[in-house]
Amino acid sequence: MQGVSNNFDTDMFAPLIAAVEAQVGVGAISDPGERIAAMRVIADHARSIAFLLADGVYPANDGRGYVLRRILRRGVRYAWLLGRREPTLTRVVETVIDTMRDVYPELQARRQHIIDTTRAEEERFLATITAGMQRFEELAPMQTTQERSISGDDAFKLYDTYGFPIDLTELMARERQYTVDIPGFEQALAAQRTQSQQERRSRKIGVAADDLADAATWSDVAGSLADAIASSHFVGYATRAADTEALAVRSMSDGRVAVLLRHSPFYAESGGQISDGGEIVGEGWRVVVDDVRKLDGKPIAIGKADGDVARGAVRASVPRDTRLDTERNHTATHLLHAALRQTLGEHVHQAGSLVAPDRLRFDFTHTGPLTYEQIMRVEEIVNRGVLSATPVTTTERPYKEAVASGAMALFGEKYGDVVRVVDIPALSTELCGGTHVRNTAEIGLFSIVSESGIAAGVRRIEAITGSRAYEAERVRGELLRDVSEVMKATPATLLRRVHALSDERRALEKRVSELMRGGSGGASGPVQELLDGATSMNGLRLVAKQVSMPDAKSLQELVEAARESATDAVFVLVSAMEGDKNAVIAAAGDAARERGARADVIVKTLAQEFGGRGGGKPALAQGGVPSADVFPALLSRAAVIVAEQVG
Question: For residues 367 and 116, what is the distance between their CA atoms, to the nearest angstrom?
């Protein structure tokens, strides 16, 4: 229809190829055919990148995110071969958006997210690709008499250390007629994953569900273990305490016991919410619950026992304040997720979370740190949701129906045919199995404690709610009051007072500097006093003296002022300052340096000889020694060193 014989010559790709050409030019590939092929790869990959990012996929090390990362890094590699050492795909991705936004408006709607994420990924890979390519050259030289094969361990190192996806290594190897030991690579990758899992398990106190499933290990069971499990139910959504029955008991190897209840109020860790604690009290015994595990979807309470635990009637309970604090933090996490998407964009997705009684932690996909204004905006949106006193409802619905209605599902999570939907009308709707408040007003107050990066493209917010948020605000208020008293101001006038003191400090520092230089009528200032005590040395002046200065900054200002005032002088000053710091500083004027004086050599030599450390530049250097007792000997030695330099 367009009179061309190749897809890449159609109007779908022509603007993308032109965008690549505008950036790379001739590049490092001299063969025209190879150069055209490389540009076509970049154009095609840029199109995939734009649509994947627009569809909510985010670069990661597993799943569909890893597919995106592989595509992106393969494109970067071809741009690198064309001579590019800076982001290239970013501009091509922009062209994809410009040429296709009319048909695919989601590209324009998420334009900034697509561009920012592409640029961040390119910059991250470019930071290691040079070293990785050098390593690949060592592993697969063009000219060799050895076997043309890259071992699994070497391929894994390219992946683990330099960020080369295995298919990129395979591609590069094929171009040089090398093979890659894929089974060896997969073995090395599996070994790393196994080690990581073992390390995580070693740090986690608990028991595996597989161990609990062994019916022979349960010593006191009502009927069969399968029947007992089938008759057990979690009732923690509706109540914190239950008069119920212990259906099965098992002694653990670590001295704890596991108890299966007919009606259990104990939540088992899931979806970021940690397991409940509490107690189970039977006739003549008590178990302090410190862990909860699931067995065939039913909660098993585990803890230290006081007395002989047996089947029968019991009372099981979760502490009221602990449960309420957990519920506040979990519902606040849903509000936080919605607020982040509203503030930053729909590219934000949950990447992990922790819901505990004392705090919440929320990991999410985003390319860079949040500004102070963005953090305050997120906090404001959440607190508006809290103050709206919106009822929180939970329903069970078919998965497809729930998602179709707008409920947010977490990618990678496993959901059954029927799911639990937590709905906060007009604020948030998510699939969630955790415990929540009945009304957002129960959260009380929401406060962000910190925002940080934890991985490439993943940020973390930690926050507090309820009484802990109130306590934090109270502490801030007390600190503001105390600082105001020290500054002799009120909280309302504190900032103005701080600015005034800052201006006064700058003015005083300027005055001190002038006095040190002997300016503004201060001809007999500190600098002149130093020069008055100078000794002549082969046409130069040497000042080797102990002075009294309050801190290192003041000492440095003095010696710099002296050096500027006397270019023919060498200064070696020592001072015992606050905090048991014994400083040594040396400076050499321009004329003195032309004669061979070097402040860095002076300080380094003195520090080594008198048990200290120091260094710097030829014009100015500083260091320290353990004791001021050596000052007289040090200054005498300094005179000898300077004499040797300028003699």
Answer: 7
Average model confidence (pLDDT) across the chain: 88
Last residue of a domain, one of 290, 318, 346: 318
CA–CA separation, 606 and 637 (whole Å): 8
What 8-state DSSP symbol labels residue 273?
Answer: B
Burial tier of 374 (Cβ tally within 10 Å: 0-12, 13-18, 19+): middle
C-alpha of 641 from chain center: 50
Q: What CATH number has the domain bearing residue 634?
A: 3.10.310.40
- Domain span including residue 150: 7-195
Over residues 344-386, the pLDDT tens digits come to 988 888 888 999 999 999 999 888 899 999 999 999 999 999 9
- Sequence-ordered list of residues with C-beta below 8 angstroms from that of 474, at least 6 positions apart, any chain: none
pLDDT tens digits, one per residue of 43-100: 999 999 999 988 878 888 777 888 898 899 889 888 887 878 888 899 999 999 999 9
Using CB atoms within 10 Å of the CB of residue 583, give its burial: 0 to 12 exposed, 13 to 18 middle, 19+ buried. Answer: buried
For residues 56 and 133, membership in a common domain is answered with yes
Reduced to 3 states (helix: H, G, I; strand: E, B; else coil), residue 300 is strand
Provide DSSP, 199-262: HHHHH--S--HHHHT-GGG-SEESS-HHHHHHT-EE-TTT-SEEEEEEEEEEE-TTS-EEEEES
